Please model this.
Amino acid sequence: MSRVTVVLITHNRREETLRTLEHMTALPDAAPIIVADNASADGTADAIARRHPGVLLLRCDRNLGALARNLAVRHVHTPYVSFCDDDTRWQPGALTRAADLLDAHPALASVTGRCLVEPGLEEDPITPELRYSPVRGPDWLPGPALLGVMAGLSTFRVSAFREVGGFSPRMWLGGEEELLALDLAARGWWMCWAEDVVIHHAPSKQRDPRRRRQLGIRNTLWTLWLRRPWRSAARRSVAVLRSAPADRATVAAVVEALRGVPWVLRERAVVPAGVEEGLRSLEEAQRRSPARRYVG
Model:
């Protein structure tokens, strides 16, 4: 019986989605797959229905961004869910290995895998942050403790994901995992990185990097203001903006973030002191990381 379900979200990337599904449906892990199509206009959903009738296809009536994952998780009946983007492909045995780790450690909410970037299969630039995470975790943790995850590389305990409400409807897409991870940690859940859980990433060329950067800055600022003590939030906000180009996209991100201040203040809930200590321990590595540059 399957222990893990794969959830894939996509929008207007028909050929990439089909290539990813060819790979995912052929894995020996034999996990059921749910695809949430974010109102694609390029025939993605119809092509999936024709070529992969065994996949549960959800046709969203608009582009829900990361919220499409929440919708898909409502249809998950396994204890674990592995998220997959239309350009990420879990490698043979990775889903099973992640499920084994979650089976063995009931207080573990998620396992994030090692990302190799195609075509050369170099490690993703975020890897050193994960492999050498300074966050202090319990001795039983099977890998470095994390306070942030990458959705397309992660397997979650469904009960933990549902406990915190999944991805925030405020964020839409772009760094949306940060708030989810902090809310899991605030409730006492642990997250870890596993080197032997391997995912390949073939970065799509069909994306708007400026808009993605704009959303990433906005969502990072919102997460800081929602969950960090004000002093930490201010310090990190300055660091984020210093790392971003001084252009219209960055200005637009700040304007969007400031417009959200009223609801941020209403919904603000600072993380416990232990979580804040872990976040402070990450700041130097994040400052140095090439994966934290807001460019594009």
Notes: Strands lie at 4-10, 33-37, 56-59, 80-85, 88-90, 108-117, 122-123, 154-157, 190-201. The longest strand covers residues 190-201.
